[in-house]
Design brief:
alpha/beta; Alkaline Phosphatase, subunit A; 8-stranded mixed β-sheet; 4-stranded antiparallel β-sheet; about 30% helix; globular
């Protein structure tokens, strides 16, 4: 159905486009694995002056949610404006070695922009400074070049431009493929990150045991937030020095939720809730909704960046695109819910769906296996708190929320994120919340049908099997799993 619909939109794309000379430049700064952990959002033990200033002079969004709690499916969605579950890009790092193509008419955002006269670039360095990874991590590789350049110096003479910078933080240094040989996998940049957070002064989330290992890892994450802000400062300084600041819309967001054991890979808010800041300089005419220093609490899917960015560029998004415009002269109807999906990640096959409203969060575990303790070799190696909790559980030293986290997940979960921001108290069995549960359950069922959720169709065993060997070679297999 998608293929047929997009044949029509393909012919219509490009209509109602503004003069390229009058269009703004657009810069995406994409944080790797962050929740709302900036000072401007109220986070403690971080120093984020550059992003805080950007938000104080721009728009700050408080209810933005990724469509997936892991990078490749999430990026595949916001780079096409289509749910990853609708385009068969929902499994982590899938279609890298087959002949998969996006459905006809579904295109990368940068291809639409290039056709409209935009110069596109994916930047990793500015001068001698590393500001990005050059990361794509898309579950489609046969669409041709996604960007036209990786050179910052080409931007000034190729306006209007759309540039993306993917910050190296927050991530473990996993790309040397030798993690299995290391006692602990270091954080990218941890040797120079500002040491704002200290293990003895921070408080880990209550779903973890208060233990020195937990405190050390939590401090490392918070310091990576501060380190990321340093790189953002380098980017914004160079934007001004090159005379580009007055004509460039800056958008900062994260590709998925927080780099923590209960964060990425999981559909709690920790894996899905992301920051978004949009800044219009005074040299550009801002949309009517734009109020410098404003805060927007509307529910927004990260998927909606696609259509909104096209609108910023003076382009009418193709009508079948699932992305919605949340800013501009002709915004689409606001969302009641943001929908998200978790499917196979690395060697770990699991299907979970999420419905997030303004206050309540519904999670459906179609196949969550043992839940948090489920084997994932990357998680076991790079997140020391996970084997720690396994050890403490075996010793009978876990209680409360940490002990509950080590149990299999129920079929349904419902959380009041206002009264229970850490999502510990499952209300799915509460009579008082029965109507909310039914409403959100029905919303999910409708979304699954309307969007053609492909997650119900498992990948063949021969597709999944190589990931077991790859992850074993990369991260190793814990002893307890070798004995099973």
């Amino acid at each position: 159905m998608i293929r047929g619909i997009f044949l029509v939109s393909l012919l219509m794309a490009g209509c109602h486009q503004a003069d390229p000379q009058q269009r703004p430049n657009i810069l995406w700064i994409v944080g790797e694995n962050f929740k709302l952990d900036l000072g401007i959002y109220g986070a403690d033990h971080v120093h984020t002056p550059h992003l805080d200033s950007l938000a104080r002079h721009g728009l700050r969004y408080t209810h933005v949610f990724a469509t997936s709690p892991v990078c490749a499916p999430s990026r595949s969605a916001f780079m096409t404006g289509m749910y990853q579950t609708s385009t068969d890009t929902h499994n982590m790092r899938s279609h890298r070695e087959d002949d998969y193509r996006l459905p006809e008419g579904v295109r990368p955002l940068t291809h639409w922009l290039a056709d409209a006269g935009y110069f596109t670039a994916n930047i990793s360095s500015i001068g001698e400074r590393i500001v990005g990874t050059g990361k794509l991590d898309l579950n489609f590789v046969n669409e041709g070049p996604i960007y036209q350049s990786e050179n910052w110096d080409q931007l000034k003479n190729n306006q209007p431009f759309f540039a993306q910078i993917n910050t190296p933080e927050a991530e473990y240094d996993i790309y040397d493929r030798k993690s299995a040989e290391k006692a602990r996998v270091p954080w990218v940049g941890e040797e120079w990150h500002p040491q704002i957070a200290h293990p003895d002064s921070i408080t880990p989330p209550p779903y973890y045991p208060d233990h020195p290992v937990t405190r050390q890892e939590w401090a490392r994450y918070l310091n990576s937030v501060s380190g990321m802000d340093v790189r953002v400062g380098w980017i914004l300084d160079r934007l001004r020095a090159d005379g580009l600041a007055d004509n460039t819309i800056v958008m900062f967001f994260a590709d998925n939720g927080r780099l923590e054991a209960r964060g990425i890979h999981w559909t709690w808010d920790t894996g899905l809730h992301v920051p978004l800041v949009i800044y219009y300089p005074e040299g550009l005419e801002a949309p009517v909704q734009y109020e410098p220093g404003g805060v927007v609490e509307d529910v927004i899917s990260l998927l909606d960046l696609t259509a909104t960015t096209l609108d910023m560029a003076g382009m009418e998004p193709p009508s079948p695109m699932q992305s919605r415009r949340f800013l501009g002269d002709s915004p689409d109807p606001p969302r009641t819910y943001a929908f998200s999906a978790r499917d196979r990640i690395d060697e770990t096959v699991m299907r979970i769906r999420s419905v997030r409203g303004q206050r309540y969060h519904y999670i459906r575990n179609f196949d969550a296996k043992e839940g948090f303790p489920t084997l994932n070799r990357y998680k076991e190696k790079c997140f020391p708190v996970k084997p720690l909790m396994r050890q403490l559980m075996d010793q009978g030293l876990l209680s409360g929320a940490p002990a509950e986290l080590m149990q299999p997940r129920p079929e349904e979960e419902l959380y009041d994120t206002v009264l229970d921001p850490h999502e510990i108290n499952n209300l799915a069995g509460s009579v008082e919340h029965g109507e909310i549960l039914v409403t959100m359950r029905s919303a999910l069922e409708n979304w699954v049908t309307e969007t053609g959720d492909l997650g119900a169709v498992p990948e063949p065993d021969e597709v999944v099997a190589p990931f077991v060997d790859e992850m074993h070679n990369w991260f190793g297999t814990p002893q307890w799993a070798q004995n099973d």
